[in-house]
Amino acid sequence: MFKKLPGDETQSLVSTTPDTAVVFRPAVVRTPAFVTLVIFAARLVAGLVRLVWRHPIASAVVAAPCAVAWWYGWRAGLVLVAVAVTVLALWCSLHRPSFLRWAGWRLLAFWRFLWVYRRHWQAVMVVSGLGRHLRGRDYLPHLVRVRCTSWADVVTVKMLHGQAVKDWADRLDHLAHGFGARSCRVSIARAGRLHLVFPRHDPLAVPLPAMPIPEQASVGPVCIGTREDGAPWLLNVHGTHVLVAGATGAGKGSVIWSTIRGLLPAVRADLVEIWALDPKRMELSFGRALFGDRYAATPAECADLLEAAVAVMQERADRFAGLQRSHTPTPEDPFVLVVVDEVAFLTAYQSDKSLKLRITAALATLTTQGRAVGVGVLAALQDPRKDVLNIRNLFPDKIALRLDESEQVDMVLGDGARDRGALADHISPVPQQGAGVGYVRLEASPEPIRVRAAYVSDADIRAMAEAVAA
Ligand SMILES: Nc1ncnc2c1ncn2[C@@H]1O[C@H](COP(=O)(O)OP(=O)(O)OP(=O)(O)O)[C@@H](O)[C@H]1O
């Protein structure tokens, strides 16, 4: 029986019959050195062809000076390099975005493909357990492509047949540290292929100042901060309900105030009314003038205000029935946004049982029936466990700011969110670095996105209240 095995594997294969001392050792046929050399040379050529095919620009940048130096001498090669560097530097200083788009990121991707990912690929795959060693042969996932954006490397990988996304999601730490990144996130590119996102630096590490107040009166989506990829973070509050979960000091206030700030022109145009429930009397009391008489602090006042919102909702539902199925804000029927700071004070931690029942029932009614008639809820919560807020699943949109425990991430963003890289429990507790930072899931994609809300200072809130009063 002949079995072809690479390397020295065969030498260590020994088999014995179960009850005799007969030992079988396979014969080892040594491959002549020149055959091995030919195989290595063929692999090298194939690798080079693949490299040129995948990175034509970067390959040309390296190959052209070498070719000129070969044919016309090293001085000519040096001149070509100097001219190319000068042209690139000029292009970069004159029009940086187009330079980065067409040359900068591609050159960086080429460099990182070779130096970071190709170089360490085998070791990281084997040590993390994503590669397999079967019958003397290494089976490794295929490194397809590296693309660089302003803040991260996006690595496309072809999984081994039979691997699942979970196999990769379970090893994000190994991958991040193996390739020298702070973290890693995984998403599906297409069947059998994944995108691994390795941030090179944190674009959300510095606090953002309050967003400018929009010029147009609109009920949203409201720009409340920025996403990790540099795009604005747009939050929809009209036609949905939003739950913001975060430990104490996570920056829930910045999400609430940035939203109110974005709606300010609509408040002034009577298209939006903001009703505030402030059981802690710390957060919303600061901009009390913005809410007029629709501000409640004690549990009894909060229950009354919530029931008033339910009454508005039911009156509209009676009027709209059979006439319209969605709400368009008008001064007669403005969009009502009920903002609740620390909703658990009114539900789980409320000692008066009848108040607790009234509040929970009103919140459940608003969150199940308010969307279509223009009544929305934006609630903040420190502890997202079900026994603290049993109606948390009635909020279609959820934001996970810094959380204390890893299990809380999936409670907020849904199953598997943490495995896919929503590390809300790793957000820094230092306010400068981590307050207002969080993860969201957009409707169009199951992948969590890292975001940071802009910080609305006390002075900004005061100016907002004065603007509305004027
Ligand atoms: N977006 C932000 N960017 C930078 N710093 C922020 C941001 N939001 C809040 N901070 C800072 O973090 C501190 C805590 O924020 P905030 O009070 O909003 O947290 P919180 O989640 O509402 O906490 P709590 O539940 O205890 O009220 C603030 O005093 C402020 O200095």
TrEMBL record:
InterPro entries, per the entry: FtsK/SpoIIIE/SftA, FtsK_dom, P-loop_NTPase
Residues binding ATP: G246, A247, T248, G249, A250, G251, K252, G253
Domain FtsK span(s) in chain numbering: 230-410
UniProt superkingdom: Bacteria
Coiled coil: none
Ranges that cross the membrane: 33-53, 73-92
The keyword Transmembrane appears for this protein: yes
Tagged with keyword Transferase: no
Entry keywords, A to Z: ATP-binding, Membrane, Nucleotide-binding, Transmembrane, Transmembrane helix
Protein name stated in the entry: FtsK/SpoIIIE domain-containing protein
Gene source species: Planomonospora corallina
